[in-house]
Amino acid sequence: MKTRRQARLTAGLVATVVFLTAIAPLATDMYVPAFPRVAAELSTTATQVQLTLTTFFVGMALGQLIGGPVSDQHGRRIPLLVALLVTTAASIVCALAPTIAVMTTARFVQGFAGGWAMVIGRAIIVDLAAGAQLVRVLNLIAGVGGLAPIVGPLLGGLILQLLHWRVSFWLVAVLGLAMTLAVLVVVPESLPRERRHAGGIQNFLAAGRIVLSNREYVGYLVVAGAAMGALFAYVATSAFVLQTMNGLSPIAYSIDFAANAAGMTVAALIAARLAGRVSTRKLILAGQVAALAAGIAMLVGALWFDAPLLLAIVCFFVLMTAQGLMIPNGGALASASVPDHPGTGSAVQGFVQWVAAGTIAPIAGLGGQHTAVPMATLITLGAAVSMIGLLVLARPKPAKTGPGSRSGMAPEAAA
C-alpha cells in the first residue's frame, strides 16, 4: 500500500483534473451556437456541420476506451501529456479548417485525444484516493467541472457577438497548452511500475472481461450510463422545446440552460460534502426518483398539453439537478468496485457514457422540432434503467458478521 501513496492527492492535482474534465463541454458548448455561421462559411449543410459534433462524441468514447488501458501499461503522466498536445494540435487545425471534411476529421481527433486525457485524469484520482475520499473528490471534480457547461454557451455567444467563430477553437488550443503546463508542474506519476499491467489487445480484453464480470461495477455503469443518456436527451432537444414550441428568446434560453447546469453543479458539490456521512447509494436513489418524476411529468405534459413552458422549465431543472447526484456518484462507486483495474474500469465507463450521449442525442430529435414526446420518453426510460442498475444489478451483498466481513465491502464502505 505504500507505493500507492508515493504520489499525494494535492489541491493542485485535483484542480488540474477539473481542468481536464472541462475539455468536452468547452470544446462543444462554445462551438454549437456557431453552427449556422460554420455552415455558411464552409459552404456546407447543417447536417454536415452537425456531423462534426457526432464525430467528436465518437472520438471521446474511443479515446476513453483506449486511453485507460494504455495508461495502465505505460503509466499516467507521459500518455496524458501526449494526449493534451494532440488535443491542442487538433484544436488549431479546427481553427484553420478550410473545408467541412477537414473540420470533421480534426473534431474526431480532438475528441479522441480529449477523451484519452479525461480517462487518465480520473484514473490518477483512483490511484491516489479510496473510500469516502474517492467519492468526495470525484463529486468535487464533477461539481466544479460542471461550471464548464454554464460558461461554455455564454462564452461561445460572446465570441460570436464580438469575434469570429474560429476564435473558440483558438481558445481551446490555449487551454490545451495551459493544461499541459499544469500537468508538467503539479501532476506526478501516480502508477508505479510494479502496479502496471502488461499491454496488448489480449490483456486489454482480459482486463475488460474482469471488470465487466463484476456485477457491482456493471450495475453502477448502468446507473451512470443511463443517466448520461437522459442528460443528452435534454441537451439535444431543450432548445426546440423552449424556443420553437414555447417562444422563449435565445437569451432567456441561455439563462435557463445555465441555471439548470448550476443546479447539477450544486447537487454534485452537496454530494461531495456528504460523502462518508450519507450513503452514496441513497443519494443516487434520490436523484433517480427525482429524474423519473421529472420524466413522467414531462411525458404527460408532452402527450396531452403540448409541453407548456412552466412545466418544461421545472422538469428540466429537476432533471439536471438530479444528474449531479446520479452520474458522479455512480461513476465513483463503479471505480471503487474495480480498484485493481482503474484505467480499464474508467475507460469502459467513459466509453459507455459517451456512446450513450452520442446515440441518444439524435434519437431524441426524431420527432422534429414541434414535439417533446421522444425526449420525455427517453428521459423517463433513462431514469428507470438507471434505477434498475442501482437496485437490481448493484444491489449490496449480504453483510458478513465474521472477522473478515470488511473484505468484501470496499465499495459500500465508500458509500
Give a topology summary.
Layout: H1 11-21, H2 23-29, H3 35-41, H4 46-74, H5 77-96, H6 100-128, H7 131-145, H8 147-162, H9 167-186, H10 201-212, H11 215-244, H12 250-274, H13 280-304, H14 309-337, H15 342-364, H16 373-393, H17 410-414
Helix pairs in contact: 1-6, 1-7, 1-9, 2-8, 3-4, 4-5, 4-6, 4-15, 5-6, 5-9, 6-15, 7-12, 7-14, 8-12, 11-14, 11-15, 11-16, 12-14, 13-14, 13-16, 14-15
- What's the CATH topology name of the largest domain? Growth Hormone, Chain: A
Order of helices and strands: HHHHHHHHHHHHHHHHH
CATH architecture of the largest domain: Up-down Bundle
Query: What form results from the Cα inertia axes?
Result: globular
The average pLDDT value, as a whole number, equals: 79
Structural class: mainly alpha
Largest sheet, in brief, is: none
CATH H level, superfamily name of the largest domain? MFS general substrate transporter like domains
Low-confidence sequence ranges: 1-5, 401-415
According to DSSP, the number of beta strands is: 0
Tell me the fraction of residues in β-strands, as a range.
under 5%
The CATH class designation of the largest domain is Mainly Alpha
Count of discrete domains: 2
Q: End-to-end span in angstroms?
A: 21 Å
- Helix percentage range: over 70%
